[in-house]
């Protein structure tokens, strides 16, 4: 598998919005009373993504196999201070097309992001995942993440029974 990561900038917002909406709805439409249309319009629109792409702390990448975009990732730096006040990286989105899951693209992207966060000398990486997605939870646990808490997705239109999210963290070993 040949995978590479294309850094994104403001000019990529329209293409990112297309991929983000498609992949999001493949995996998360079941969470919403409207099948995710409202969330996509609000959080994954060209305007919203363009604004996010302009923030210095945000890192966006397309996950590529050859010339095909198979997913995208967004991580944020700094995000969450630890007990000593050190900033943590926050993996906000790691989405892989449904027809590409289980093929190593998510693992390659996660390894890439972890390596970047380590290079930035951060103490760890934090993320949130839907509690009812057991395969996703197992994926992150295989990569060394541990449960750190839970919270409810507080957003208009979400189906209440599906709103529980898990907070997962991965502490990095100090480097000498």
Which residue ranges are poorly predicted, with pLDDT under 50 across at least 5 consecutive positions?
A: none
**Rg, Cα atoms, Å:** 16 Å
The SSE order reads EHHHEEEHEHEE
Gap from first CA to last CA: 32 Å
Structural class: alpha+beta
CATH architecture: 3-Layer(aba) Sandwich
Which whole number gives the mean pLDDT? 91
Largest beta sheet: what is the strand line-up? 1-2-3-4-5-7-6
CATH topology label: Aminopeptidase
Overall geometric form = globular
Output the number of helix runs.
5
Total discrete domains? 1
Tell me the helix content.
25-40%
Main sheet: strands, sense, barrel: 7 strands, mixed
CATH superfamily: Gcn5-related N-acetyltransferase (GNAT)
In percent terms, what proportion of residues is strand? Answer: 25-35%
CATH class: Alpha Beta
How many strand elements? 7
Detailed description of the structure:
The structure is a single chain. This protein is an alpha+beta fold and 176 residues long. It has one domain (4-171): Aminopeptidase (3-Layer(aba) Sandwich), CATH 3.40.630. Helices cover 31% and strands 33% of the residues. The chain has five helices and seven strands; from the N terminus they run βαααβββαβαββ. The chain has helices at 13-28, 37-43, 46-53, 105-119, 134-142, and strands at 4-7, 58-65, 68-81, 87-96, 124-130, 146-152, 164-171. Strand 3 (68-81) and strand 4 form a beta hairpin. It starts with a strand and ends in a 5-residue tail after the last strand.
């Amino acid at each position: 598998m040949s995978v590479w990561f294309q850094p994104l900038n403001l000019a990529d917002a329209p293409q990112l919005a297309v991929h983000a909406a498609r992949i999001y709805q493949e995996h998360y439409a079941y969470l919403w009373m409207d099948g995710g249309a409202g969330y996509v319009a609000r959080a994954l629109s060209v305007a919203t993504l363009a604004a996010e792409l302009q923030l210095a702390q945000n890192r966006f990448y397309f996950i590529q196999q050859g010339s095909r975009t198979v997913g995208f990732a967004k991580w944020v730096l700094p995000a969450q201070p630890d007990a000593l006040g050190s900033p943590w990286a926050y993996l906000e989105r790691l989405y892989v097309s449904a027809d590409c899951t289980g093929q190593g693209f998510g693992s390659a992207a996660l390894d890439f992001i972890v390596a970047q966060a380590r290079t930035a000398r951060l103490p760890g990486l934090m993320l949130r995942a839907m509690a009812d997605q057991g395969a996703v939870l197992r994926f992150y646990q295989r990569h060394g993440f541990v449960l750190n808490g839970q919270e409810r997705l507080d957003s208009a239109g979400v189906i209440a029974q599906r709103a529980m999210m898990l907070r997962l963290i991965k502490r990095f070993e100090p480097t000498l």
